[in-house]
Amino acid sequence: MAQRSLTAWFTLPGLREKAPPTPAEAASFDALAPKLGYLSKAEVKRVREAYKFADEAHLGQKRATGEPYITHPIAVAGICAEWRLDAQALMAALMHDVVEDCGVSKAELIEKFDATTADLVDGLTKLDKLQFSTKEESQAESFRKMLLAMARDLRVILIKLADRLHNMRTMGAMAPHKARRIARETFDIYAPIAHRLGLNQTFRELQDLSFQYFHPWRYAALTKAVAKARGNRRDLVSRIEGEIRAAFAKAGLRVEVQGREKTVYSIYRKMREKDLMSFAQVSDIFGFRILTEEPLQCYTALGVLHQLYKPQAGRFKDYIANPKDNGYQSLHTTLMGPLSTPLEFQLRTEGMHQIAEQGVAAHWIYKSRSKQASSLIAQQANARWLQSLIDIQDETRDANEFLEHVKIDLFPDSIYVFTPKSRIMALPKGATPVDFAYAIHSDVGDHCVAAQVNGEAVPLRAELKSGDIVEIITAPGASPNPAWLSFVRTGRARSKIRHFLKDLEQEESRELGEKMLAQAMRVEGLGLPSLELDDPAAPIWHELATWAGSAGTEQLLMDIGAGRKIAAIIAKRLARLMAEQGQKPDALALTLGRFTEAPINESSITIDGSEGASVQLATCCRPIPGDEVRGYLGRGEGLVVHTCDCQVGKRLFQRDSEHWIRVEWSEEPTRSFEAGITLLLANGKGVLAQVAQAVAQGGADITHIAMGDDAPLSDTTETAEMNLLIAVRDRLHLADVLRVLRRTPAVQRVARAKP
């Protein structure tokens, strides 16, 4: 294998100096033709036809730089040609803006070219024709469309990345505030997607270009410092190069030695992470890459390097045995070179190197069987991520939430853990057993109750580390906990948990809505018609839902339970529809209903604590069984229960009395309820222990403790105020606890907290 000189290795990949084409060349097919040698004559002819179509469509349009607009599609197609994408992808690259900017329809593209090319162009087209409430919502929906099109055909995102790359390279003519916004979007979304798909060369360039526009002064200063350091360290680099070559020649190992330089952004990030005050403190801006012919030779070459220079402890990573999630394979090691200079080395085969730089694009680049085999890892790894996008989409209809999940999955670092059957799984750094459970299967995640790591029980929020053997313990009746959302790291886990909780909330809202409507119908002297689809009453429900503006009967009941519709009003309409079919109210039921439920908007609801998210107990007054209560049906918030003497509730009632209904406690509540109490304590040793003992003696549990004015007990104060939340069964139980506390010597005053 030939060894290349390092004299020109300081040029960043993707930023090599090239003679710029003349304006006429850039705007003609001649700028693209030399890159199409890998296509057949028939394919080149089709690409030329797409160019002519795009050229005519963009005729008269100019870019911000003043160039003809067609120069941009030609440049995008040129980048795609460097990745050796097929003719259809190049045609879509040339026409990627004709639908959005020129009014060309998808049907027209299908007729003139083919359905696949039209689908690619459509996947790249923004959703400008739809109406969105905010620009952010529009952007999120466009991203969702693009990513889902990508999941169906990977060429969509490759063309989009080429599009963004050329836009970033030519953004100098744009207004600074627009350039910063686009740079931030590129940095947050497109650069991570390039990394996730293994296009590291594109990833590094997008990061650097983004950094250039949102921190121009820092970029300029670091670029100047790197150029200066490059000249100052030339002798040292030449010495290291000579020693490396001599060592491999002595070992009889044929390798290719390449130099590499950290990108400007990676240097800036390292300075921030290590709190370095100046560029002079950055010691390892240069590194080397060793390319071998076979994977086994990578390990042999590693041994040669470790004999030549001393390795730094804990700075070796084997991504050949454990590839990254995007298919990346390489050995990484950091050695102490001459003059105690840290040197980073990457060792890989030529096939691994192409995968590392081009990622999934290598699938189109490779023609030989051996290199196709090398690219298979990247394809399989990214197929798993693309499938996860489809899974997330199936459970996330909100575009902003979908984008949030995708951002979570665009992680730069991975850990590698094992199932008890030795199956290896890649997860983001900081992942937990819950992430692991959902990565195995959604059913495992939904029913997860405990976890063991390396044979020992751990909390579900524990962070996993590479090499851990993880076992998930499930239970048939278990379900996801909302608290899991605070620590899970994968988009898949987050979307699955949210999907389950939404379904649960909708079911609870539906049950509450049915209950509220049934009780409102008693005021009308009628029973609730059957909800069975094949029942004769089905048309009534359909007409009622249409009148109420709900999508169907189920949605109508959920709207009532969530407070978006008032049960009494819906009941009156339903009673009228039933009367039209000859169903008259029962006289006795009507009399009893109206006697017990005087105002029609106060149909009573009985609660026992088992209602779930559809019924909330207000935190301002914390009602418990025995309190006189009433409920507020907030718009979309479900039923919020206040005590009748709650000042917050009274003010809300004065503003919006129509949304209040009567609420009653069940005779047999199913759980305990939190009540707030305030204590004035005489300061002294063991005061907290006395209070805790008194609460326990009263048969209650303390769920939260807070000191008044956030001041802890100290020796300098005679008294202190303490606020407790305690779990009690009802008002009688609370009274018992207060009596016990009043008998406690340290307690000078105790009362239930009032809002």
Features:
single chain; 755 residues; alpha+beta; five-stranded mixed beta sheet; 29 helices; 20 strands; 48% helix; 15% strand; disordered N terminus; RelA/SpoT family protein; RelA/Spo_fam; RelA_SpoT; transferase; HD/PDEase_dom
Polypeptide structure, described:
Helices cover 48% and strands 15% of the residues. With 755 residues, it is of the alpha+beta class. Strands 1, 2, 3, 4, 5 and 6 form a six-stranded mixed β-sheet that branches. A five-stranded mixed β-sheet has the order 12-16-14-15-13, with helices on both faces. Helix 8 packs across helix 19 (399-409). The protein is globular, with a radius of gyration of 34 Å. It starts with 22 loop residues before the first helix and ends with a strand.
